[in-house]
Write a structure and sequence with these properties.
Length: 193
């Protein structure tokens, strides 16, 4: 049974590549994996994976993507969601393999992500959030009244589901699923240092 063969959670190895490039090396397990993604990222390795799914905040649903060279683009008939700030792709792997994701960190300079009421989105953790907890981010940038209605989830590859997680230390390349309920005000998080 393919689901029972899934091993430990995905770990991401980070190292600078050249100049402003970010490099994430993600070891995929058998089953569903959530991988980091940024605009115009290149995906290298795991060549058997030709489809990915990206959550669209504006649609409230997933957009099916196909691999074209080193990038995942929306399949024919799917909407262009390149203007949405999201940061994760769901991919299904039939074997263990390593995928490297290369993205230009310069694209994050001056960029913010705004969390509004009753919203769900995925975010790839930028370098500037390294070592912080989700509670640190909420305390620094959000109303204290909203801390209980902003939920941070991380992907558990072994259980094949998102799990609620407030206490873990963030690391670059980690993908978070963030869900909000009725916020008293918008919460804006910086993606740069």
């Amino acid at each position: 049974d393919i689901w029972k063969q899934t091993s430990a959670n995905v770990t991401v190895q980070i190292s600078p590549l050249r100049g402003n490039d970010m490099l994430w090396r993600t070891n995929l397990t058998i089953g569903w994996n959530i991988i980091p993604s940024e605009e115009d990222a290149a995906f290298l390795g795991c060549d058997d994976i030709q489809k990915a799914y990206r959550y669209s905040t504006s649609r409230g649903d997933y957009v099916e993507m196909e691999r074209f060279g080193a990038q995942f683009i929306p399949m024919a008939g799917e909407p262009d969601v390149s203007g949405e700030r999201t940061g994760g792709l769901a991919v299904f792997s039939r074997k263990r393999c390593a995928m490297s994701i290369v993205a230009d960190s310069g694209r994050l300079s001056g960029q913010w992500v705004t969390l509004a009421s009753n919203q769900e989105r995925s975010i790839t953790v930028p370098y500037t959030w390294y070592g912080k907890t989700k509670a640190d981010l909420l305390a620094a940038y959000c109303s204290p009244l909203d801390a209980g209605v902003i939920l941070f989830n991380t992907w558990d590859a072994k259980a094949q589901r998102w799990i609620l997680d407030y206490t873990s230390t963030l690391y670059p390349g980690q993908v978070l699923q963030i869900k909000t309920r009725n916020l008293t005000s918008a919460c804006t998080l910086p993606l740069w240092g």
